[in-house]
Amino acid sequence: MNTISTRGTEALLAVMAVAVAAYAFLAYALLPAGVHVGEPMQEVYRLNPIVIHTHAFAAGLALLLGPWQFSSRLRARRPQLHRWVGRIYLVAGIVVGGVSGLLLSRLAQGGWVAQLGFACLAIAWLYTGYRGYRAIRRGERAQHRRWMLRNHALTLAAVSLRLYIPLFLASGVPFELAYPVIAWICWVPHLLIAQWWLGRKPQVATGALPTMPR
Ligand code: HEM
């Protein structure tokens, strides 16, 4: 991919991430929990208001903060800002958003296949965040970048999920069939794409993700 299309893709992903985060903040701050989702989901959210609100705000924060962390210009000019935003992203976003996502996975619609899909996503999200943190604490910047790229690819599952649901429903696939599939395809392809990206020619991989100042 050339630089212009790479930048275009990054910008589009950032816009979609901010749009979904805005949805999470506005919908869950201003409206009763889950008024815009189906009745069975709404019932679960009514019974578990703390976990759904915690999840929507924390995971929304991760979605909002993530894209800026990959800006080489920001990292070079404001390394302290990168560190602080990174800490907030990991603790408030990934740890709180991931643990609440894991709790929610047991209550998700779509039966055990969907529940397992969301649970695996939550575990992968927490694990990649932990590896990214551990790598930077050890001073392994290249490994830090690689794990955080995987982690952010998983954060973007929230965007794909909200694109797939209307697409499947518009194609006439019933929700009960669509949702278990979506719970997996909203994130597994993201990880594969991130892995493919990281596995490209070494000079491209390192050049595409510039060095993060400590
Ligand atoms: C990446 C790890 C994530 C996991 C494992 C996860 C898991 C879940 C689960 C299981 C549900 C309940 C679904 C159901 O009731 O059927 C849910 C709902 C929700 N999640 Fe996440 N989630 C993740 C990331 C995110 C992100 C990054 C956002 C950012 C906006 C987000 C925002 C929401 C919202 C707003 C809901 C309520 C449903 C809705 O209004 O669309 N989640 N999540």
Provide a quick synopsis of the model.
This protein has 214 residues and is mainly alpha-helical. It is built from eleven helices and no strands. It is 82% helix and 0% strand.
Layout of secondary structure:
Layout: H1 3-30, H2 39-47, H3 49-69, H4 72-77, H5 79-105, H6 111-137, H7 141-155, H8 157-170, H9 175-185, H10 188-198, H11 202-208
The structure holds protoporphyrin IX containing FE (HEM).
Mean pLDDT across the residues is: 90
Q: What is the alpha-carbon Rg in Å? A: 17 Å
What is the total tally of β strands? 0
**Roughly how many Å apart are the termini?**
29 Å
How many structural domains in the coordinates?
1
Output the number of helix runs: 11
Structure description:
- The chain has 214 residues and is mostly helical.
- The chain has one domain (3-208).
- The chain is 82% helix and 0% strand.
- It has 11 helices and no strands.
- It has helices at 3-30, 39-47, 49-69, 72-77, 79-105, 111-137, 141-155, 157-170, 175-185, 188-198, 202-208.
- It is globular.
- The structure holds protoporphyrin IX containing FE (HEM).
- Protoporphyrin IX containing FE (HEM) binds next to α1, α2, α3, α5 and α6.
